[in-house]
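Lecture notes, unit on binding sites. The following record was shown on slide 14. It pairs a sequence with flavin-adenine dinucleotide.
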Amino acid sequence: MTRVVVVGAGPAGIAAADVLSRAAVEVTLIDEAERPGGQYHRAPASGLQLDMRRLLDAAHASYAAFHAQAASVCARVDYRPATLVWGVHGRAVHLAARGFAQSVGYDALVLATGATDRVMPLPGWTLPGVFTLGGAQAVLKDQGCLIGRRVVFCGSSPLLYLAAVQYLRAGGKVAAVIDTTRFAEKLRALPDMLAAPGVLGQGLRHMAALKRRGVPILHGATIDAFEGKARVSAVRCTSPDSAPLRVACDAVAYGHGLRPETQLAELAGCTLRFDPVQRVHVPETDPDGRAGHAIYVAGDGGSIGGGQAAAVSGRLAAAAALHDLGLAADVDVAASRASLARLRRFQKGVAAAFRWPGERAAALDDAVILCRCENVTVGEVRAAIALQDGVADVNRAKAATRCGMGRCQGRFCGAGLAEVAAACVGGHDHGRDRLRVQTPIKPLPMALAGDLSP
Ligand SMILES: Cc1cc2nc3c(=O)[nH]c(=O)nc-3n(C[C@H](O)[C@H](O)[C@H](O)COP(=O)(O)OP(=O)(O)OC[C@H]3O[C@@H](n4cnc5c(N)ncnc54)[C@H](O)[C@@H]3O)c2cc1C
């Protein structure tokens, strides 16, 4: 029988698997997480009684609806939780799960692999107590833990406000929200953000809730450093409206939006292109997610778009796969395309309102750690680029310095590396080079003495 493999059980993957499971195909749904949900609908660890209704407030209804749908989908398909797809070759995905390895062939592959946090390296960003914004939110949703007692949320992302509000709801203290984008930039992006007034309204309510609780919010600030000895104790920043500030804290949640997880698409032979608005590389697709080579890309892994856009694009990708296999899909394609276009317009506004501060790479001190896995500094990368005769080739810089060669395989330092390299040869507008993917895309367990069976 025809087999469609879906990677990712977040909003995009579950929506795709739902559509596919109603057609005459075998569906294998794989996710490295223990439970469906992805990032947006992340559920608490099993056995943990977390009050998700209180934590999510108005968003709880969509969380509950998603998990009801996911339970039904996972019961209808070949669902493989806690399973990492570490490679794609020759129309098969390669898996590793709890002590065994396997390859699964496919006739069509839907990649719904989501995104990870994007960070600009700064002095002190590797201090204990400094978390990525998404990481800070993940420990709260997954484990019910706060990263500290007095937390600063900083960077540029709508998630700053959402995560800060969730920390307050969970009983945490928010020392400040330090947003590096100016309020005027947000106002300028308003026409695009009005494409999804409901989502915009939620964001505004989060800002208002923080103000009501007396949380200081700085717009257009420059974060100069995270300070501390054994762990972070303050954020030093400069705001256009005040003298330089030190905000005392015992933890920091830091991020500048998201970057799509494109490794599997690249391994499968898809072309990646640079998106100048979001300043990330994305797989080249048609409006329904066709990326060539029987690959379909949905959700944040194709274009950062949020949970609603992920679900719509998952349905469209599934419909495209079924259409190409000569099968019908129960999807209103025209309405879904219109809805996705509207949500993507909203995200274009969000990307402009919460800008990635790539130009800051030029001002970073040589001593700042760029690659935290391999402990490579900005200065070492600059020295490597200086030997490249005016070319900012990040893959050569990686070979020379080991930047991006560690455990995260450049997923966290890659964006900063591209900007530092670009700044060496003429500026931010050149920050378009990217690290090439390597197999396995994430670390794999190894058996030294033969037997890998469970
Ligand atoms: C850390 C983080 C927190 C976020 N929090 C929120 C929030 O609170 N509210 C909000 O509106 N938006 C949030 N977002 C944005 C939100 O994630 C998305 O817009 C939405 O979840 C995207 O859905 P998706 O299905 O495309 O991807 P995701 O929800 O990210 O799901 C992708 C899934 O693919 C799996 N996966 C990826 N690679 C592999 C692989 N190689 N092998 C096996 N499985 C794999 C992952 O485990 C994951 O479950 C967050 C994003 C991040 C990165």
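Take-home: The mean pLDDT is 94.
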